[in-house]
Design a protein that fits this description.
This protein has one domain. Helix 1 packs across helix 2. The chain is built from two helices and two strands, in the order αββα. By secondary structure, the chain is α+β, with helices and mostly antiparallel strands. Strands 1-2 form a two-stranded antiparallel ribbon. Strand 1 and strand 2 form a beta hairpin. The relative contact order is 0.21.
Length: about 60
């Protein structure tokens, strides 16, 4: 699940920018034909902060 966390955090940051409200949690849903399993990303604010730092480095070159 950890590999999906930065992508989910990037989506959350985009939503925050678009609507002007914070996204305080990220939940991934893994679905099969018989069930859906929800997993909340732990330390979501920390993951978002890491994505912000990464994007800052990319923009600065």
């Amino acid at each position: 699940m950890a590999r999906y966390a930065p992508q989910l955090a990037a989506y959350a940051l985009a939503i925050e920018s678009a609507v002007g409200r914070p996204v305080d949690r990220g939940v991934l849903v893994f679905a099969t034909t018989n069930a859906a399993l929800e997993r909340e990303v732990p330390d979501f604010d920390d993951v978002k902060a890491q994505v912000v730092l990464f994007l800052d480095r990319v923009h600065k070159g």
